[in-house]
Design a protein that fits this description.
Length: about 250
Amino acid sequence: MELLVDLHTHTVASGHAYSTLTENAMAASRKGLKLLGMTDHGPSMPGAPNLYHFGNLSIIPEEIFGVKILPGVEANIVNHEGELDIPFSYLAKMRLVLVGLHVICYPGGTSEQNTQAYIQAMGNPYIDMMVHPERPDFQLDLERIAYKSAQLNIPVEINNSSLSTIEEKARARVNCCCFANYMAKYKGPIILGSDAHFWDRVGEFSAALEVIHEAGISEHQVLNSSPERVLDYLATRRKQRLSISKVPLSIA
Ligand SMILES: [Zn+2]
Ligand SMILES: [Zn+2]
């Protein structure tokens, strides 16, 4: 499987990542990637950028070193209702919105509360994809998430970094394999994300590829196996939003 799209990368703006967008784009270009998501952490994470950063994303060129750039965010779920840390008015202008649970930004809860928060966020029309449900930080019902992914056609990530971080590797791998098996069962769309926090990790998917291979997941189920399919999917999401007549524009 050739993956020419990395939708989950961080820049220095995230506060705990160490490369610029230019460096990430250069690395992506060297690896032959066609599409690069710039998804710095949402404002509730310590050290993450404030809303001014997200309000100025439109100045970023469409393409850097021949790689198409999708500027956006990895937004944080902040409560059991699945609300996010960025106003809808900002999300509406972004080219890519990833969403996940992160320690410090989310209070934690029972497996039922965490799963409910995650699934509520999946139903938000301003989000595009969900990330790293396999992280051991919060207990989640992975089968329900895989089922919802298929039902709502919302891609969920198999995160390469979770499988490469030494201290969490074993537990994350167990969860990851379990989640991949559920995704294989329900056939929801999958994305593989590097979650790179340094340029040398951009486009790195080898551990995640191993997991989906073991689960018997085919290339067709992996959205980022085709740059065109990713762009089509994102365009369709934005068209679907236009049909929503009344949406609150306050902080969600
Ligand atoms: Zn991070
Ligand atoms: Zn994350």
